[in-house]
Amino acid sequence: MCYLSLAIVFLLGSAGINADNSSDLARVGIVRFINNSDSPDFEWVEKSLPDAIDHSMKARFEYIRLDDAKVDGAASQVAAGPTGYTGESAAQIALLAQADILIYGNFVVDAASQELVLKSVIYNAEGKRVIGRVESRTPMNAKIFKNIDQMAAEIVAEIYRFALQANQGSSQKHLKLLVLVPSFANATEEQMARQELEHLKQELQVRNPGKYLTIFEFFDEYHVTEIEQQAALKYAKQRERGRLQLWLEQYGVTDAMIVLVSENKVNITAIGAKKTAQVSYAVNATPEEKAKQVAAAQAEVAGKVELKKDAGLGGARFTMLIGPTFVKGALASGGQFGVISGLNIHSSYRLWRFLEPHVQLDMYYGFPSGNVKQFVGGSALGGLGYTFGNERFAVSPYLGAGIFTGQVNAAGGVFSVLLPSAGGGLIFKYFLSQRLGIALSAHSQYIFDAANPALFTSITLSSVLRF
Predict the structure, then answer these.
(1) Is 81 helix (H, G, I), strand (E, B) or coil?
(2) Which of 357, 377, 349 is nearest to 458 (CA)?
(3) Burial level of 430, CB count in 10 A (0-12/13-18/19+)?
(4) Closest C-alpha among 427, 423, 421 to residue 439
(5) How many CB atoms lie within 10 A of CB 456?
(6) Which pTM value belongs to this model?
(7) Which residues contact 7 (CB under 8 A, 6 or more apart)?
(8) Contacts (Cβ under 8 Å, ≥6 apart) of 188
């Protein structure tokens, strides 16, 4: 039974292992954009857009780009609608091209405004869902080249937001960006600064999900003393960015955005682990210009992010284990049994970081030993646990309570039992691919019986499925 469990895991997992060649990086396919302009003059756009997207992505991500011929060959086998591919079509193309992320789109001429309308869609094959859409309009003049690059940057921003959510499970845990603003001389400037701050927080949250605080929220959360508060406010008012940066580092903050608003101008200093970048814009600038400057500051200091195959498996919530278990009994009644084997099914679901319910079901068969000719039984436990680890290796301790039932065929007759029990264990999981793995767990269960208590200790080798 032990070998059977291992065989199941390796057979199911081999496809995932061979497909990614031992790499967790996403395979990105960029489909040649569909020309709905009815004009051969824009055929060059079909080729330029994928190349511009790839160029922008290389600056932000570690990933594998699929060969254009392979992707376009897959796309040629799938019929496109009048305005491009549907989600179902994208799923077929991704399957044929073996793409984890698929980027596709179309463009058309708006005769009324004499603009080229570019539309793109980002599809995640594992999650079977669209993770981003971008539409851009550009005049059909010399600016078209610059605007194609801008559209590519917007597509990358959508993918970057998705990657931060998927990478390492929780972006809030790993991304610490702070918005610090107090620099105003009167009530009007203060109101202006606070409004601008809220706008920036919303803009940052959309682009890069994370934890954003005003300086006043920062004071409260980090329990900053009054003296330190006044020092920080003084640095901000006097535009001493360097001293503000050092002050933040004292609190362990090395990834921040310092925003100073005064005299109808917003000055942003983005601080990264290795460098800083500065941008500025007028308070009355258009939302597009503000978003562009904020994105530029973040892009300047951001390091490359691994674009993973999965749609956030770091945030996978459900895990199920199934495999053979071997049990040893002890105490007054448990010690009467010989070798016990059976099947263990264990599942967990993470509702929240610190709330992870566990359910365990066991089926037992005991071989003849002494006065016991045969034992058939089972148990059901429910409780809470916690999982530590990463995408490859994880450890889950848990505790639970439930019932123990069984039928004992002994020399004195046949007896049935139904008793309360409590137990706990430790599960060591190793993932061979994104969803499949193996696990070794140790578990103990105490059976409550005033006259004849029992303690059963088991070892289980399981196959693991998570999603």
Answers:
(1) strand
(2) 377
(3) middle
(4) 427
(5) 25
(6) 0.47
(7) none
(8) none
Taking only the tens of pLDDT, the chain with its 467 residues reads 433 333 333 333 333 434 444 356 788 999 988 888 877 778 888 888 888 888 888 877 788 889 999 999 999 998 887 667 888 899 999 999 999 899 998 888 888 888 888 888 999 887 788 888 888 888 877 778 777 887 887 787 778 767 755 554 433 344 455 555 555 667 776 777 677 777 777 777 666 666 677 777 788 877 788 888 888 878 777 767 677 777 877 777 766 777 766 666 777 777 665 666 777 777 777 777 777 777 777 666 665 666 766 544 445 689 999 999 999 999 988 888 888 999 999 999 988 767 899 999 999 998 888 788 889 999 999 999 999 877 688 999 999 999 999 998 887 788 899 999 999 999 999 988 778 999 999 999 999 998 889 999 999 999 999 88
Q: Which two tokens stand for residue 245?
A: 């940066």
Distance between CA 131 and CA 432 in Å, rounded?
26
* Helices H / strands E in the chain, number of each: 12, 21
Q: What is the CA angle 50-55-56, rounded to 5?
A: 100
- For residue 40, give every residue at least 6 positions away whose Cβ sits within 8 Å of its Cβ, in sequence order, or none: none
